[in-house]
Write a structure and sequence with these properties.
470 residues; mainly alpha; Growth Hormone, Chain: A; 3 domains; 19 helices; 0% strand; Major facilitator superfamily protein; MFS_trans_sf; cell membrane; transport; MFS
């Protein structure tokens, strides 16, 4: 499979797609108060501009990945980018909250660019260069976050909050054109079927669980609404597991998810997602608290964004380097190093956070460590699964990371609220450090390189019997 425009343009396509999606997900956060005013809604209603896209992306990502495995990544990628672009336009032009939520839900389907991009990389690049390309793509997450925070303030101040929602469209439009030009077509596999019942049940329990997780702080963790949603999620999950175990071509091959290289990487992704978003809440909040508290810095939103910039750049650089390290020492050791760096960065700010330079040092260690960890888990999953399962496996991995990110935000907020004063931040940083320490045994459980090589990846008809469960 050879790209029409050359392999060198594939990272550019991935950059545009992932950057546009990351921007679309992140740019709403600094504009929530203005969206509330502009659409004449409540704070909770405005917050659903984030929640709607998060839920949509969580459900769509593994489903889109599976469709890419079955029908080829090119046609699915074109459809996903087109739908996401339409959604972003609707959200940017919306005059009411319901219309904006429709647009944001359509935009969330753009989360499917992640597994599709990994599938394209595996198809286009030779095995020796796959790890480097995957690492480069994983680094786009950090760069997208950095760009979104840097753009938010000036655009809102000079042009207004609606222009902030138009920015991702500028990335997706050329992305659609590049995808049409660069990504080669691939024929659908014979007798390919989509497990739509499995997809519907999967989406049902996932939406119920994530809604409970998202609204737990506002509704109360023991409220009837949260407990009811959790109960519904558990019931639908049990039915889904039963369906997936019986259908001939399930949405998710559960036996594949039990492969040691896959489940260890997924567990590490959950914890890494927690560590990413915990810092995304704790660092800016600490910077913007009034100096009169004795531990806050009384900084502006711009200063909080600038604090995130070195960490995001460090995450990007680490992701780019991780692929090269994979070829020398393997992603197992890259994951170990990333976990150690992230844990050390958080441990430093547990005891030293009285000056801004200390936050920069701790944040930079966190960013570099997470850049290594994110790239490593993506490479581990890609290497552990047959080629025909790359999309759905990396989609599940992305989904699990999203769940971890939600946990990082919610748990950190609970800690800060439950432990008043400086203790709340120290405890939040300490928990994040402990979470990354828990990644260390997972990294040690990853099979050695020789056992997880992608050599001789079986064809679709051989995949189920070929994937060892260890």
């Amino acid at each position: 499979m050879t790209a029409r425009g050359g392999r060198g343009l594939v990272p550019l396509l991935a950059f545009l797609g992932m950057m546009a999606y990351s921007l679309s997900m992140a740019v709403v956060t600094p504009a929530l108060a203005l969206i509330q005013q502009g659409l004449h809604t409540t704070a909770a209603g405005a917050a659903w501009a984030i929640t709607a896209m998060t839920l949509s992306a969580a459900v769509a990502t593994p489903v889109v990945g599976r469709l890419g495995d079955l029908y080829g990544p090119r046609r699915v990628l074109l459809a996903v980018l087109a739908i996401a672009t339409v959604g972003m336009v609707i959200a940017a032009a919306a005059g009411s909250l319901p219309l904006m939520l429709v647009g944001r839900m359509l935009s969330g389907i753009g989360g499917g660019v992640f597994p599709l991009a990994y599938t394209i990389i595996r198809d286009v690049y030779p095995p020796a260069r796959t790890a480097s390309a995957v690492g480069l793509m994983s680094s786009m997450l950090g760069l997208g976050g950095a760009v979104s925070w840097c753009l938010a303030g000036p655009i809102i101040d000079l042009l207004g909050w609606r222009w902030l929602l138009w920015v991702p469209v500028a990335g997706l439009v050329p992305g659609v054109l590049l995808a049409w030009w660069i990504v080669p077509a691939s024929p659908p596999r014979e007798a390919a079927k989509v497990d739509w019942w499995g997809a519907a049940l999967f989406g049902g329990w996932l939406v119920a669980a994530l809604t409970a997780l998202t609204e737990g702080m506002d509704w109360g963790w023991t409220s009837p609404g949260v407990l009811g949603l959790l109960g519904l999620a558990a019931l639908l999950a049990l039915v889904w597991l039963r369906v997936e175990a019986r259908v001939a071509e399930p949405l998710v091959d559960l036996r594949l998810m039990r492969v040691r290289g896959v489940w260890t990487a997924n567990a590490a992704s959950l914890l890494s997602g927690y560590a990413l978003m915990a810092g995304g809440l704790l660092f800016p909040l600490l910077v913007q608290l009034p100096a009169s508290t004795g531990y806050g810095f009384g900084g502006t939103a711009t200063q909080a964004a600038l604090l995130q910039l070195p960490a995001s750049i460090g995450m990007t650089a680490a992701g780019m380097t991780a692929g090269l390290l994979d070829r020398r020492i393997g992603s197992r050791l890259v994951l170990l190093g990333g976990a150690v760096l992230t844990a050390a960065g958080y441990a430093f700010v547990v005891v030293e956070h009285a000056a801004m330079w200390q936050l920069y040092v701790g944040g930079l260690g966190r960013g570099i460590g997470l850049g290594f960890a994110y790239a490593a888990v993506a490479n581990l999953v890609v290497a552990a699964v047959p080629a025909g399962e790359t999309g759905v496996a990396t989609g599940i991995n992305t989904l699990i990371r999203t769940v971890g990110a939600s946990l990082g935000t919610q748990v950190s907020a609970v800690i800060v609220a439950g432990l008043p004063g400086e203790r709340g931040f120290s405890a939040g940083f300490a928990v994040s450090s402990a979470v990354m320490v828990a990644v260390l045994p997972l990294a040690l459980l990853v099979p050695p390189r020789a056992r997880r090589s992608g050599k001789g990846a079986p064809c679709r008809g051989e995949e189920r019997s070929a994937a060892p469960v260890t």
